[in-house]
Amino acid sequence: MARCVWITPVAAVTCGLQTPANAAACFDLAKGEPKELTGRLEYVIFPGPPNFEDVQKGDTPEPNFILQLARPICISGDDFADPRTHFSAVQIVETKAVAGLLRRLLHQTVTVSLTNQMGAETGHHHEPLVAWVTAVRVGRARPMEFVDEYGTAATTIRTFYTALGDGQGADASAMVVPEKRATAAFSPSALTRFYGSLAQRIRLIDITQNNANSYVVHYRYATISRICDGRAIVTTALRGGRNFIQGIRALNGC
Hints:
It is a single chain. By secondary structure, the chain is mainly beta. The chain has 2 domains: about 5-140, no CATH class; about 145-250, Roll (Nuclear Transport Factor 2, Chain: A). About 10% of the residues lie in helices and about 45% in strands. The strands form 3 sheets. Strands 4-5-7-9-8 form a 5-stranded mixed barrel. Residues about 5-25 have low confidence and may be disordered.
C-alpha cells in the first residue's frame, strides 16, 4: 500500500486507502455526478514516480487536496469506476475559479461544486474519485448529513465520539451500558481526563456497519507525542428500546 503524508495543524501522519463499507447508491460519473460533496478539506503529499510507494524511499512527492467525507460513497459509469469499492476520500483539483482558496480553508468542513469527475486512471490519481472544484463554501450543503444513520445504533456511537471530541466524559459515558460506566475505560472522569487533554481533540471520520450490532469506526486524534489514525470495532446492545455501546476494540493500537 502506498504511503502518504497528511498535513495537519499538529504534525504529519501516514494514511492509506479506506476499507470497503456499506453506502448509498453509487454516483454515476456518466451523468456528471457527484455534482457537490461535503467533507473536511485536507492537504496530502502522496508518493509519485518512479514507484508510487514512499517519498522517504525516493519517490517524487505529489501534493494534493483531499476531501475527507463523513461517510463512504461509491462511483459507477466509467471504465475506471468500480461500484463495489466504497471510499471516504476524494482527490480534488483547483480550477482558476477557486485558485488559492482551498489552501486557506484547510482542516475545515467545506462544500465543493465539482466538474470533470473521473475514476482514478493513473498512478497520479491517488483516490478512486478525482474531480475539479469550480466553487467552494464553508459548511455543509444540507443539515441532514447523516440521514442513513437515523434509527440505528450509529447515532449512539456518533454521540459518544462527539462528546469525547468536546471533552465531555459524562455525556460520552452515558452512551455506554450502565454496568461498564464505572470501569477505568468508560468512567466519566477517565474519559474527560484523557480526551479533554489531547493536543488535537478526537474527530470521528466515519462509521460503517459491520453486522447487526457491530460497527467499524475511523477516527483521529493527537497527543503531545504522537498522532493516532485509528480504527475500532464498536459493539452495541439494545436495552429498553435504546442503543448503548457494549464494547470497543481497537484495531490498530490507537
